[in-house]
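Have a think about this chain, tokens included, and walk me through the fold.
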Amino acid sequence: MLQDVNVLIVTSLGNVSLRVFPTKAPVTAGSFLRRVDAGQFLGAAFYRTVRRDNDDTQQPIQVVQGGLMDLKDSFERLVHESTQVTGLQHVDGTVSAARREIGNATAASFFICVGDQPALDFGGLRSPDGQGYAAFGLVIEGMDLIRRIHALPTATDAPHPRLAGQMLAAPVPFLSVARVAR
């Protein structure tokens, strides 16, 4: 029987505790937990902050993105678990998989919502296809640290023009990422 799982991310600035929901989002949560168990997040970091002053899209959001920055070898073709399917919503502290198009999501790169972000849900307007993003967890401790990271200075250069001004000037490295007892 599937159970929800707690994961502790220890960073250079403090800790963030997540509850991951394989009971509601088995594909996305399972992918994330396999990466945790394999130690793939060692050397990863919180590296991007999207906020009102650096998001000039029609549907601005507020999130902190983390995980692996180099994704060339880490993409799995995950079945998209929309919020319509899982019943999860992008509320304050939600953990969700990054994606571009449907079918290229990866739990190797994830984001945490700062405040409620309904534009990221199914039917929301952040993604042109209206499918939203695959929420799979929630911060249960450490949102104060996520808010601190969200406010950190950003660099002007970025690996892609749409990320300009959103990459942290000093990424916050993960020192360990592991399952912990509930």
